[in-house]
Amino acid sequence: MSDYAGEKTLEPTPHRRQQARSEGHVAKSRDLVSAGVLMLGLGALGAVGGALVGFLVDLCRAQLGGRPWLNADAEFAVSQWNTLLWGLGGKLLPVLGLIFLAGVAVNVLQTGFLFLPQRLKIDPQRVSPLGGLERIFSSSNLVGLAFGVAKLLVVAAVAGAVLYGERQSLAGLAALDPEGLALGMFWISFRTTLKVGGVLLALAVLDYAYQRWRYERDLRMTPQELREEARNLEGDPRLAARRKQRRRELSLRRVEGQG
Questions:
Q1: DSSP per-residue codes, the chain
Q2: pLDDT digits (tens, 9 = 90+) for 71-106
Q3: What is the pLDDT of residues 169-204, one digit of tens each?
Q4: Can you give the residue range of the structural domain that contains 64?
């Protein structure tokens, strides 16, 4: 009976869920964040990637061709640097901004908004060498290691298959002019990364499902934990029953006294 009482067989209460959330324990997949940022970043890059490649081609043409530099003083270097900085920044800032928003959105969609100032406190367990070894060789980290190795093998196989399918396009790049070469390499890389990202996203969804299952399993409660929580929230049931009996007795005495 004692063994059964120690098993986590009960669904977690709302109070336990809220307590776990306040401590930062939520179901979250880092792989889903990475895959979501990758896919949304690719979408942003696909929208403005042509302009970025065009700018880089024009920059290479201007630097490698045209009139030679006859005077390269400090003022000229600053002028070239400002031209490169403002031109490249104007093309990259929209992409970087969308990637940043994608990272925030994927995190918020998984866990909601979390404000945990107590996590800034120094926790001796986090810097303990023994605690670090326990975390490294824990079952969850071993499962994560196995999942990471499998993911690496799958991604390598998908990337190899995609590049093998693009072998004719890769061979034809040699006959293109510099601008066509740059655009061709960009779109081959883009298609390859897009397909690899799709595989990573599918694997990340599976990882999130596993993290969610493990989170729900860890939140489950034993009968003893449920009784202790009820006692802490409502008081000892035996004391509550005694207080209720006492109030009933006092009410009866008042009624008898009035009679």
A1: -HHHHTS--BPPPHHHHHHHHHTT-----HHHHHHHHHHHHHHHHHHHHHHHHHHHHHHHHHHHSSS--S---HHHHHHHHHHHHHHHHHHHHHHHHHHHHHHHHHHHHHH-----GGGGS--HHHH-HHHHHHHHTSHHHHHHHHHHHHHHHHHHHHHHHHHHHTHHHHHHGGGS-HHHHHHHHHHHHHHHHHHHHHHHHHHHHHHHHHHHHHHHHHH-B-HHHHHHHHHHHH--HHHHHHHHHHHHHHHHHHHHHH-
A2: 667 777 777 788 788 878 777 887 788 888 888 888
A3: 888 887 877 767 777 887 888 888 888 888 888 888
A4: 24-113+129-220
Terminus-to-terminus CA distance in the chain, angstroms? 52
What's the number of domains the chain is made of? 2
Reading phi first (left if > 0) and then psi (alpha if -120 to 50, else beta), residue 135 is in alpha
CA-to-CA separations, 219 to 14, 112, 113, in angstroms, rounded? 11, 18, 20
157 and 76 fall within a common domain: yes
Same domain, 137 and 247: no
Q: Does pTM surpass 0.85?
A: no
The sign of the dihedral angle between the CA atoms of 198, 202, 207, 211 is positive
Q: Quickly count: other Cβ atoms within 10 Å of residue 7's Cβ.
A: 10
Residue 62 lies in a domain: yes
- For residue 114, what pLDDT is reported? 72
Cβ neighbours of residue 231 under 8 Å, at least 6 residues apart? 237
Whole-angstrom distance, CA of residue 194 vs CA of residue 159: 10
The Cα 84–Cα 231 span in angstroms is 67
- Classify burial at 223, counting beta carbons within 10 Å of its beta carbon; exposed 0-12, middle 13-18, buried 19 or more: middle
